[in-house]
Write a structure and sequence with these properties.
With 138 residues, the chain is mainly alpha-helical. Helices cover 67% and strands 0% of the residues.
């Protein structure tokens, strides 16, 4: 998980944005049967998470990630998996899961870049503080 990135930190130069709960179907899945709706919603939430990570809106990211994680157990529910199999939708479900996994990997890359950026900013701030202290002779 990307929890080590310091998701609760806010970017002080950014204005908070309100992100409505995402309920629209992801592109390219309009013809998928409703049995796959939980996977489609999970994919849509993952797309939104990537967008939030790219804009460094970590507060909204963390809130949506919590919502998404709460939905995860339903996706591994045996009745849900049996229904997908019985409906002959295994390939479609696999495709959605692969898309989710690819997006998750992109989120990790974005989060790691943000973490490195924050670390560099912190390092520069510490150096600046040390310089001020040295100058003042404290």
């Amino acid at each position: 998980m990307v929890g080590s990135v310091g998701l609760a930190q806010r970017n002080p130069t950014k204005k908070p944005t309100n992100h409505p709960k995402t309920t629209a179907q992801p592109r390219g899945t309009h013809s998928m049967p409703s049995i796959l709706a939980p996977l489609e919603l999970f994919l849509t939430r993952t797309q939104t998470l990537l967008a939030l990570a790219e804009t460094e809106d970590w507060e909204a990211f963390e809130a949506l990630m919590t919502e998404r994680q709460a939905e995860l157990p339903a996706l591994s529910d045996s009745q849900f998996l049996i229904a997908i199999t019985q409906a002959g939708l295994v390939d479609e479900a696999k495709s959605l899961i692969q898309s989710i996994q690819q997006l998750d990997q992109q989120i990790v890359v974005v989060a790691e870049k943000s973490k490195a950026k924050i670390s560099e900013q912190l390092s520069q701030s510490i150096k600046g503080t040390k310089a001020v202290v040295a100058y003042k002779g404290l």
